[in-house]
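Chapter summary example: a protein plus zinc ion.
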Amino acid sequence: MVDDRVVPSTAARPPGPRWLEVHVSRGAEGTLRVRLSGALDEGSDPAALLGAIGGDVVLDLRGISRVNSIGIHRWIPAIARLSRAHRVAVEAVPYCLVLPANAVTGLFGRATIRSCLAPYACARCGTDRIVEVTAPELGPAGPPVRPCPECSGRLQFDELDQYFDFMAAPGA
Ligand SMILES: [Zn+2]
């Protein structure tokens, strides 16, 4: 059985556009969904992108492939402003944003973090995948395991235990 939350690791790190691209859609019950992809760096303008959002929103960040300190510096006031004005839920925080999220207070303002993308590996066959892990799945037992798509083994979380720390304290 293939779990559709388990995708090849290369798919989560596409070459991607040079700058931040935005895709807007309506989810179930009319929820505004904004998907960002590309690079969060000196070529991006998060204040303009997030400033254009006029209501409660789900931000899907799975397509962000690169970040640098300039991009982070611009992102923080933009997400702070947006999450003060509206309810913001963040989904699929990518690997490149997890390190800054654990190092920088307020990287997501008051937003609720619903899920992040985490590196997983199968000890039996060596397959590695990027897996989306939701906040409710992070219980006292640690990150969830997933069936390996290549063998009868299991994919297990393959990073430092502190990886998910930023998800434990959202909305500060
Ligand atoms: Zn395997």
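Key point: Residues 7-14 have pLDDT under 50 and may be disordered.
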